[in-house]
Amino acid sequence: MAGGTPRIALVLDATGAAAERHARALGGFLRDGLRLSPEHPADAVTHLFYAEESARERLLALAPTRPVRLVRAPPHRPDLMAAALAAFAAGGGADLFVFGGPLGAELAARLAARSGGGVLTGVLDAVAAAGALSCRRHVSSHHLIGRFELRARPWCVTLDADWLDVGFEPPAEHAVQTSAELHEDDFSAPRLCDDVEVLEPPATSDLEAAQFLVVAGRGAAGRAGVERIAAAADRMGAAFGVTRPVVMNAWAAPDRQIGVSGTRTAPAVCIVAGASGAPAFLWGVERAGFIVAVETDEHSAIASEADAVVLDDAVAVLEALADIVAREHP
I need a surface site. Which of 56, 148, 190, 208 has the fewest CB within 10 A? Predict the structure, then answer.
């Protein structure tokens, strides 16, 4: 944060509708909503997510800053977008991320969760001072205005709906920035194509063809527990899936989801760890030849549906089972 002025990333999700309106809101906020020192102009760049190459030039013209980072991503994949932004944040690319577009709130929450930052939605204005971002927003059904302070960086904010009606003219010319190679992880496969960063979904899911499947649920003790169960599944040679609450908490990617809104499986053996067994999830595993539930609640729905039940801590049981498999099949 040079000279007391934060480095700012305006994040425009143009993979959905109303890109022009959200671009104007971001530009208006940068101009009028961020109270910065006049001797230190805003150091800002636009991250423009778009899906169709044919729309690239039209969408580029909407960018509210002259510097633009173009990111081509499949629609409805906030996991891939958030991973790219997290890599940018980890490299010190920005202190403040301002989000617009249909996925703005979800992207802000995902980035804050992945990067250890702070998040606030519906922001009216903001000022950076003393190592924190102070923001105002409506509270009590718009009857009052409260002031909130974000200290953990990166600061991730979305805008109040009033900013959508603010007029703003984008720069006449734009400079497309190239990216340094991004860090790859289980949630993204970024690559560079000329001046465009391209986010590609992982390869076709292995879940449908899996004969041995381990599924982690919300009872797996958070992100760390889910990651430990995934590691145990890998040690046993099992495919790994998750329930919808795990995906909604951004503990795993959407392509790992089992159930009505994910993948329907038919493994020979399925171990369900820390999932209560909602009907939408059971549809995804009901064709399994043998279901083992690892659960602490003997009255849960999954316990009544399973062929065998282990009443114990899901993470501990899966890691112990992985140790046994490793000893028997080194």
Answer: 208
